[in-house]
């Protein structure tokens, strides 16, 4: 049975972790399937992605019953967790996490690796690695410190306490908190809106914002200039200006989004 389900509706691909009995805990096979699904999202027909979980959880992280996977934990993380974060960050289209329930450990990491996050009122985050004598992975050391600063990030990692939806929104970890019954529709509507937007401009913006987490101000000024030069020469820009002048909604091409090789993609 597949452990990850991909379903495309128009230009939106919804990827669902489908191990509800284990609250979508991650085994190696599940991680491999998720990586394959994320690579599949590069399909030109896909212009936005939603990542969510089946059942009552988003993802509770590593399946601790798979004890063999932690014998060489460094290899497991390097070979099967890190590629997931890179795939989410490097995908040249918006990725929305629809956090429908608990997102624990690597589940929190997957959610924070997405570009946007909608969270059910009943969901929560927990950086719970310390409770089993482990350290944060799946990009959490970077994302939490960047988002919250050292003190708050360290508190969450050291105590493993849960962060409810309201607190997550207050701290800027999620974009919006919605009732659970409205989550799928709101995520789908947002993804649909983004899928109808200027695909190349959104891809270039994602690359700029990803690079900004690592690069200095002068480097980012040059990257912005380079990206703007590419964007301004596209039909997307021409149509956007025309729509603005004519006071109508822009009608962007639904064709494939290809970022020119002259625009660098930083290693994550």
Automatic annotation (TrEMBL):
Assigned protein family: Belongs to the enoyl-CoA hydratase/isomerase family.
CDD domains: crotonase-like
Organism: Amycolatopsis sulphurea
Name of the molecule in the record: Short chain enoyl-CoA hydratase /enoyl-CoA hydratase
InterPro entries, per the entry: ClpP/crotonase-like_dom_sf, Enoyl-CoA_hyd/isom_CS, Enoyl-CoA_hydra/iso, Enoyl-CoA_hydra_C
A GO term for molecular function: catalytic activity
One matching Pfam family: ECH_1
PANTHER family: EG:BACN32G11.4 PROTEIN, ENOYL-COA HYDRATASE
């Amino acid at each position: 049975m597949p452990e990850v389900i991909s379903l495309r509706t128009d230009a939106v691909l919804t990827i669902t972790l489908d191990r509800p009995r284990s609250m979508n805990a991650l085994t190696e096979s599940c991680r491999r399937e998720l990586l394959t699904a994320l690579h599949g999202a590069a399909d030109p027909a896909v212009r936005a992605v939603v990542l969510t979980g089946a059942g009552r959880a988003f993802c509770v992280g590593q399946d601790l019953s798979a004890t063999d996977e932690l014998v060489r934990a460094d290899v497991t993380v390097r070979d099967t967790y890190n590629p997931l974060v890179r795939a989410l960050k490097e995908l040249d289209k918006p990725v929305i996490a629809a956090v429908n329930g608990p997102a624990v450990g690597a589940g929190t990491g997957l959610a924070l690796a997405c570009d946007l996050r909608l969270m059910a009122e009943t969901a929560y985050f927990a950086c719970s690695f310390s409770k089993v004598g482990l350290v944060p992975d799946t990009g959490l050391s970077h994302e939490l410190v960047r988002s919250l600063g050292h003190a708050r990030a360290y508190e969450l990692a050291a105590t493993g306490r849960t962060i409810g939806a309201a607190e997550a929104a207050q701290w800027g970890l999620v974009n919006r908190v919605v009732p659970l019954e409205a989550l799928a529709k709101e995520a789908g509507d947002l993804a649909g809106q983004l899928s109808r937007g200027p695909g190349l401009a959104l891809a270039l913006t994602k690359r700029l914002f990803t690079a900004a987490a690592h690069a200095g101000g002068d480097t980012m000024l040059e990257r912005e200039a380079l990206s703007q030069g590419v964007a301004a020469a596209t039909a997307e820009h021409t149509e956007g200006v025309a729509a603005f002048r004519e006071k109508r909604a822009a009608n962007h091409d639904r064709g494939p989004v290809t970022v020119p090789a002259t625009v660098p993609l930083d290693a994550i």
